Amino acid sequence: MFQPDRLTLGLMQPMAPLINGVPDMAGQLALAARADALGFAALWVRDVPLFDPEFNDAGQIYDPWVWLGQLAAVTRRIALSSAGIVLPLRHPLHTAKAAASVDAVSGGRFLLGAASGDRASEYPAFDRSHASRGEAYREYIEVIRRSTSEDYPELSGTFGSLRNLDLLPKATDGHLPLLAVGSAQQSLQWIARHLDGWVTYFRPLEQQRPRIDTWNRTVQSIAEGTFLPFTESMFIDLAEDPDTAPSPIFLGYRLGRHRLVEELTAFAKAGVHHVAFNLRHSTRPADEVMQELAEFVLPSFPSLQAPTTPPSQAP
């Protein structure tokens, strides 16, 4: 999914338009299996704990951990990632166990993208403080990192106290990849010290370039020689005419495939390592768009496919 010398492409689920804020999830597992077979680098799943009509977006409806388990069962090679689990609304040990479990049943294909949450309306329902979510995020990252990598770690904080007990399973190879989704109320310096990469929203290149450059300078100042990837999401409405020039849509573009390759090439040269396409605003069927992307766009941005993991890998 991440390589220092290339850009790879992923897909956000669901690959379906919203009707009154809710997607039709029928066929989404088949689309996920198809994305895997076509060679996309990653599938991304969102965390929307509660439906807020003001946001009018239910994500993929289903709990992300349940859905990630389904995705692990129907795919073999593609990376699975969250964008992002709202850490302050969940107990960190529950999050750690769920993440390590998906990591295990997928054969080490999971990356935990973690967010602090942008919907203040959800916080009272969980009796959590929206104002202190940044502090909770930092604390919970440490709990997740240590409980998924260390044997019998001694941990205590606002979440409780862990003594003489262990969390199982542990992360594959002892390290669960953690990505910051958005700034999560943290400085880039903190993210670069404690996490494995940064995921941010789409912006036109001239607006995104300063963020890419700042991120790279931050990483080099803190851990020179360390590779911490820069990822962005991107809504696309792929036009049938391959030469259609880019025109803005919500957090992305409507454009033809030739112009998309040009845009992605420019992003790659600027230092973007992964782009996660969101097809929610596509005016064409998702399977048709995926096929065109696979035939004419993916060859310019190939992923390094992992060894095949049988869907029956689960314990």
UniProtKB/TrEMBL annotation:
Keywords, alphabetical? Flavoprotein, FMN, Monooxygenase, Oxidoreductase
In which organism is this protein found?
Answer: Stenotrophomonas tumulicola
Q: Which GO terms describe its molecular function?
A: monooxygenase activity; oxidoreductase activity, acting on paired donors, with incorporation or reduction of molecular oxygen
Signal sequence span is none
Q: Which InterPro entries match?
A: Diverse_substr_monoxygenases, Luciferase-like_dom, Luciferase-like_sf, Luciferase-type_oxidoreductase
Q: Does the keyword Metal-binding apply?
A: no
Q: Which domain of life is it from?
A: Bacteria
Q: Describe the location of the Luciferase-like domain by residue ranges.
A: 23-217
* Pfam families listed in its UniProt record: Bac_luciferase
| Name of the featured protein | LLM class oxidoreductase
